[in-house]
Structures are given as C-alpha cells and as structure tokens.
Amino acid sequence: MRKTQGRVQEAASMGQDFRVGPTCWTAFARGASELIRDEWALKLAGEEGARLNARFMDDLGARFMKDVVALRTVYLDNVIQDFVQAGGKQVVILGAGMDSRAWRLQRLARASRGFTLFEVDEPVLLDMKRERLGPSVIAQPLCRRVEIPAALTCTEEWGGALVDHPNFDSSVRSLFLIEDVSMYMPEQDFRAALAKVSALSARDSIICGDWVPRITVQGKLPGATSDIIAVFGSECNSPWLYGPRNARAFSNLLKEAGFATAEQLTSRAIEREVREFLPFGMAQQKIHLSIKSRSWTSYAAWAMCTFAPARLCAGAPSDIGLRVYMATRE
Ligand SMILES: C[S@@+](CC[C@H](N)C(=O)[O-])C[C@H]1O[C@@H](n2cnc3c(N)ncnc32)[C@H](O)[C@@H]1O
C-alpha cells in the first residue's frame, strides 16, 4: 500500500511522465458541468485538476473547453447505455484515466448477466484512481469492473492482457471506448491501437470516441486557442500529437481497420441534440442524459437548467473542431 501511495504521489508531483494532468483536468471539467452529474469527478480531479482549470480555463479564457468535454461525455454515455440496454456484454475503456462511468452510468446496474466493464490504462493511473476514490467506492461499482494495467503503445501487449482475462471473450460483441486519448498518441500508436481493437472485435462490435483535426494539433486555429492548447500540452508534458485531416480521412482510417462509420458529430451538433431534450422536445429525446436518472424530479431539475445549453460554448475563442464518432465492426 505504501509503495502504491509513493508511486501515486511521485506521479502526481511529476505530472508529466504518467500523463496525470489531462485526465485530472477532464475529470474537473465533468465535475464542474451542469450537464453531467458526476459525484466522483472532483475527487478524481484532485488538486491537479483544479489547478489546471484555474490556470488555463479561467485565466487564459478557455472555459468553452469544459462544455466540449461535457457534450462529448453526454454523447458517449448515450452510446454506452444503448449498447448495454441492447444486451451488450463487455465494454472496454481504453485510456480510462479518471473516467467514473463504472460508478456513474445507472444502466450498468441493469446490464445483462455476465456483463463486464474493463478499464485499460497505465498502472499508476489505475492506482491513483483507486486511491482517490477510496476503498469503499472502488469496491462498489455498478457492474463487474476489471482493471487491465497497460499503456496503449505499439509495444505494450494490452490486447494480450485483455484476451487472457477470463471475463473477456473476443467472439462476443464488445464496445470499445477511446475518449480523449487519440490526440495524445503518436499516429502509429493510434493506428496500432485501432488494429488491435479490430482484432479483438466480433462482428457488430462498436468503437466510439473522439478526435481533433490536424489543424488543431498543428496549432493553426485562429485567436488564442492554439496557444492555450500548446501551453496546456507543454505544462502537462502531454502535447497533442495526432489528428486526422478531416472527417473523411478519419472514416477511411476506421474503414482500413474494418469499421464502418455510423456517425461523426461536432460538439455543436451534440449540443443541438441535447437541446431536443428540453421540456417540450422530451418525446424525441435521443440523449438519455444518464446524468439525470429520468424520474419526474430529475426532469424538473433538468427543466430548471433549461437555458443552460444556450450558454454552452458561448464566448468560445474558437471551436477546436472536436468530433465524436461511433463505428461498427464489419
Ligand atoms: C486525457 S486522459 C483521458 C482519460 C479518460 N478517457 C477520460 O475521458 O476521462 C488520457 C488517458 O489515456 C491514457 N493513455 C494510455 N496510453 C496512452 C498513450 N499511449 N498515449 C496517451 N495516453 C495514453 C493516459 O494514461 C490517460 O489516462
């Protein structure tokens, strides 16, 4: 235990080598959003998440990034919950970091028998999560949760560790989530990760996640946004490295790996879908808003934030061009 704490403290103070900063800030953004009820997010974010938020999002004016994270999270929550509702038996979160879905997505509690959620990440990140949540929370996810300690690099055998796990079955439909990770990976690692996911995916399995376009990664956005992203990346020692040229290039990449793109959406398009959930549009809602537990009281709570989406992305120095996607194994 002492050894683990030592490693976690060391990682937190160094930030860099273990890519602690970005995942802590992402958790902070979820905790601070009106769109998501994530009671663990601020704990998971820790001081690092709050510090990064103050430095970059408040001081430097990139508050809109919080909304981008929230909208992306809502979309991906929805994809996962649909998969689970349709009887899906295994969800694999690649680069899980401080993701709290195992405790947060209520539908997981009603998953089919034998359902397992796998979290793949560097051992030190998984240790940090355990320490931040504490033993009682860690012991009570809403479903069976399995940690696979491994980095998503070309050389690391994370796929083998998954296949060897008795609860993983590559002949069964899976959902692979790779959220807020692709931009931090060298292109060859991302391509290798897609190929591995493909090899582990039975027909009709789902891959979902997000990406940012090449111009964002290359720092060619107008206004201050590129500078903010660059400073964030260098202070966390996690620069953004990879982005496809455009949506078609990303679809082609998925196609090469055997996946047919079902959907690619900008954060503004997700925002429009979220608007459909507003009281008068409830009947057509597509987004389940896992965040609110769908009781009348929670609808009422949601109605009270009716105008929250109107504020989303307001005052953005620039759109970073982030897209979320979902694709199925052919
Ligand atoms: C920005 S965080 C996102 C965490 C989580 N997916 C979420 O949305 O909350 C990126 C995560 O990917 C993990 N990761 C694993 N292998 C990686 C790799 N080769 N390159 C970049 N990140 C990697 C990091 O450790 C980190 O936890």
TrEMBL record:
GO terms for biological process: methylation. GO terms for molecular function: methyltransferase activity. The keyword Transferase applies. The keyword Iron does not apply. Pfam families: LCM (PF04072). It comes from the Eukaryota. SUPFAM superfamilies: S-adenosyl-L-methionine-dependent methyltransferases. Keywords: Methyltransferase, Transferase. Belongs to the UPF0677 family. This is Leucine carboxyl methyltransferase 1.
